[in-house]
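Dear V.,

Thank you for sending over the compound details. I've combined the ligand you provided, zinc ion, with the protein sequence from our construct and run the structure prediction for the complex. I'm sharing the raw inputs here so there's no ambiguity about protonation or stereochemistry in the SMILES, which I know was a concern on your side last time.
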Amino acid sequence: MKIVKCGDLGFKCNFMAAGNELEEVEKTMLDHIEKEHKEELEKMSEDDINHLKHRISTLLGRSCGCGALHTEDSF
Ligand SMILES: [Zn+2]
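Below is the predicted structure of the protein with zinc ion bound, written out as structure tokens.
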């Protein structure tokens, strides 16, 4: 089970996308962002959006979603 939290992506939001496949969760989260955070998304540059997607993959790849997220803010 993979979980990514919207709040971990920098949005003030309690939404969580969960699923067994990385791609599935990634898609759910991106769909959510497109619907619920359209305004923020429109303000973002292509670079920011790529960064956001990368961050989703990193969060999904690195953690089982049990809450032990080790976010390195090294950007
Ligand atoms: Zn959200």
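A first observation: The first strand starts at residue 2 and ends at 5.

Warm regards,
I. M.
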